[in-house]
Amino acid sequence: MTLKTEKIQRTQNVVNDIINGNWEGTTKIIFMAEMLPDCINVKYLLVASNEFYVDVWNMTARLGRRENNGKTCTILSVAPSDEARFSELAERIIYEENEGAINISGHYFPITPKSAVDLRAIAARAGIAD
Known about the structure:
The protein is an alpha+beta fold and 130 residues long. The protein is built from three helices and six strands. Helix 2 (83-97) runs antiparallel to helix 3 (113-125). The relative contact order is 0.17. It is 35% helix and 29% strand. The radius of gyration is 15 Å and the shape is globular. It has helices at 3-19, 83-97, 113-125, and strands spanning 28-35, 40-47, 52-57, 60-67, 72-76, 106-108. The strands form two sheets. A four-stranded antiparallel sheet has the order 5-4-3-6, covered by helices on one side. Strands 1-2 form a two-stranded antiparallel ribbon. The chain folds into two domains: 3-46, no CATH class; 49-125, no CATH class. Strand 1 (28-35) and strand 2 form a beta hairpin.
């Protein structure tokens, strides 16, 4: 199954869960709103985890953590032993899962459950994740 097919299937599953009132799934939804002069543009992103993410700023990928329902975002230090692993994971999350680029600043959340688990493990080794 390709990543695009997996995204489509996950979207269909989430929509079905919402319709059926099942909010217990592992998929999280990030909402983004943009105020325009004549309307509000609301986008959503289905993610595997909305706690840890890859923060891109000034063409540098860093490990980020959302707290307080997203009101607080903190940049975390990756353990030296995990730097190569984080770099590889960040590339996968940015380029493959989110179709982004290192020169486009923003928060890139893990889309696949495997990436979410890997990102959480790196945070745990940094002494952050519970």
